[in-house]
Amino acid sequence: MSTGLTPDLGDPEVLARLFAPAADQAALGLAVSGGPDSLALMLLARRWASALDSPPRLIVYSLDHGLRPEAAGEVQMVLREAEKLGLAARGLNWTGEKPETGVQEAARQARYRIIGEAMQADGAGLLLTAHHRADQAETVLMRLAHGSGIEGLKGMNALSQVEGVAVFRPLLDVEPASMALIVEQAGLDPVTDPSNGDLSYERVRWRRRLPLLAEDGLDSATLARFATRMAEADLALTQMADAAFAELVTLDGFGAASMPQAAFHALSPAIGRRVLARTLNIVGGRQKPRALGQIEKLYDQIALGDLPGAATLLGAVVRLKGQNLTISREPGRALPEACVLGPHQKLVWDQRFLITNLSDTTGLMAGATDFMPRHRLEHFLGFKVTTPAEAIRTAPLVRDAEGEILSLGGWSFDDRISVELLVD
How would you write the pLDDT of the chain (424 residues) with one tens digit per residue? Predict the structure, then answer.
């Protein structure tokens, strides 16, 4: 929690508290670019680990993005300093062509991907980064300017998944000046990335504005405290939305959802939008919205009764059917191609179903049902099928080498196959 005061980085008990979530790891990755923040992370992580009886193995990763000629020398500097501290270190490279636009975002994605691959090879389960209180403040301001809701305004979480990499930010409530002092006291000469002063980047522009905002009380500590409060509010809303989802939403074996309109309309907008977003996420194959406004617009259409015959969003088709709101997978949108399901293989199909071959059987194929008459479905399932046609078409179907159907949607007709609808 942000208090306004920066933690005392010279206090071993403070370090133990800051790094505590990483203490149970066998090996940790440290993302170190050579700037003052990441060098401080390296120094503090080593200081923290050296005080433990059974410390995690620390591995420093420094990446040359290939965007500046100086970067290669900066990586070498990081490797030398890591060696002086007795830490394992690896220099990495982002090779290949670079995009003409969106360079920072592409570099961020490449950084986590390349470091994540190295961590997997080294057995490191968690990556520590040097994000600090000012980074959090900048994130909040950018998201506020972009119209983010409460979920976005809580800023960065200390623990999160980034591009498939488990990331921990132990210094998120520390002022950057305190980290720079640690580096200065260690006698290190940090590098300066010129892109940090490039006003063509939005984050840099907000960084320049922070001192002016601080004059009127909107400093990084205040913004970090605001992010903490938004995180608390977000958690409360999430808990209420989860309870509403469990009570109102029914998911069938084809991966389609339905909920009673009257009960959905009775929810507060803040809860209703979250229930709708979670349902779209599950049914549509976990497609991320480009903006919160997409969900808000669809929610408003439903709430005002202005929904057309069918609306599509995030890979899902939304309809008002009788007294219910129905949501099913949109056909033809990024459905997986038919693929082999090998012996004892687990397959996450369309980010919606977990299909497992429990046997040594070969020649099993998983693909979309595509088309099957309802009377044939009802023969297989033994009950009347009322789910939307697109839900049937987009449900997974597993056949054996002879073409016999072993499973359909969430139902298995053979002991060799297990199917589970993913709802979290």
Answer: 444 567 899 999 999 999 999 999 999 999 999 999 999 999 999 999 999 999 999 999 999 998 889 999 999 999 999 999 999 999 999 998 888 788 888 999 999 999 999 999 999 999 999 999 999 999 999 999 988 889 889 999 999 999 999 999 999 999 999 999 999 999 999 998 777 788 888 888 999 999 999 999 999 999 999 999 999 999 999 999 999 999 999 999 999 999 999 999 999 999 999 999 999 999 999 988 766 788 999 999 998 888 878 899 999 999 998 899 999 999 976 788 999 999 999 999 999 999 999 999 999 999 999 888 888 888 878 889 889 999 999 999 999 999 999 999 999 999 999 999 999 8
Strand positions, DSSP E, 310-395: 311-313, 316-321, 324-329, 339-341, 346-349, 353-357, 364-368
From the list 313, 288, 315, the residue with the least C-alpha distance to 302 is 313
Tokens 């958690």 correspond to what residue?
A: 235
